[in-house]
Amino acid sequence: MATHAHCIVCFDALYSDLVKQSLPSWDSNKKGLKSEYDAAREAWRRPLSLVEVEKSWTLYKSQMITKKLPALERLAQNASVGASGSSDSSGTSTPSSGSSTSLLPRSGSTSASGGASAVDTPATSTTSLPDHEPVTESPLFVTWDTETRSGAKELRGCIGTFETLPLEEGLPSYARTSAFDDHRFDPVSFSELSSLVASVTLLTNFETAASWDDWEVGKHGIKIRVSHNGRSYSATYLPQVAEEQEWDHEQTLSSLMRKAGFRGDWKKVPFQTTRYQGKKVELEWKEYKAWRDWDDARRAQQKQQS
């Protein structure tokens, strides 16, 4: 299944491309442009490999938990004291459901320029992290959305492949393709970065459906293929689409046929329906940027110590 590290790889690929595109032309006789060039160039770095990102993200999460634990323990103790002082009927108490145990900072609170950084926490090292067998290749889709001030999401690009690809190559490739080459939309621009949300879906369990409605809304994605009057039509919807749009089977197929470009009565022509599964994982820009600032600071500290 997809992970937040997969989303980070997509953001890294997009960010590096957008920064390089935004680099101003540098004329050595114009000092103002040089400082602008240097600032933009400094914002870019070599994207990390997927393995490096997986290790860094796991370490980042563990250190965020470590930083939150003392506060959570104090909340639990205060709740316990309050409960014992007001009632003898319960011997235990738990923190209020309103307290958050989110692994991610909700703002840019983890910064390389901050005084006390997560880099200062030595409790966990990458060598002590649990071993796991991550997925290394898969069919995949990368989706870019922008989040409005009201919290609504607007699609900016979604392109993928049903071919099984190494994720190390497929994720950055389709991150760029989805952002720049989805012809339904203008290419994603540098000014949109702060509002972007990256989503990755790894596709599994492909099956030929017994009928056009032999699939479950919210569980299956579907791909249709129609051959009619010497022409072929095909299109797909990811597993989350029908549920998000509140469509039933017939509404989904009608929309999918239009997406494929077929304008006839789809109930009167034979076509193939393939169903598949895949859970979408997403990451907001501010979450990516908080991790990236933390990781840049950690690597700078390691370089100084070496």
UniProtKB/TrEMBL annotation:
<dbReference type="InterPro" id="IPR023473">
    <property type="entry name" value="AMMECR1"/>
</dbReference>
<dbReference type="InterPro" id="IPR036071">
    <property type="entry name" value="AMMECR1_dom_sf"/>
</dbReference>
<dbReference type="Pfam" id="PF01871">
    <property type="entry name" value="AMMECR1"/>
</dbReference>
<dbReference type="InterPro" id="IPR002733">
    <property type="entry name" value="AMMECR1_domain"/>
</dbReference>
<feature type="compositionally biased region" description="Low complexity">
    <location>
        <begin position="84"/>
        <end position="118"/>
    </location>
</feature>
<dbReference type="InterPro" id="IPR027485">
    <property type="entry name" value="AMMECR1_N"/>
</dbReference>
<feature type="domain" description="AMMECR1">
    <location>
        <begin position="95"/>
        <end position="292"/>
    </location>
</feature>
<feature type="region of interest" description="Disordered">
    <location>
        <begin position="80"/>
        <end position="143"/>
    </location>
</feature>
<protein>
    <recommendedName>
        <fullName>AMMECR1 domain-containing protein</fullName>
    </recommendedName>
</protein>
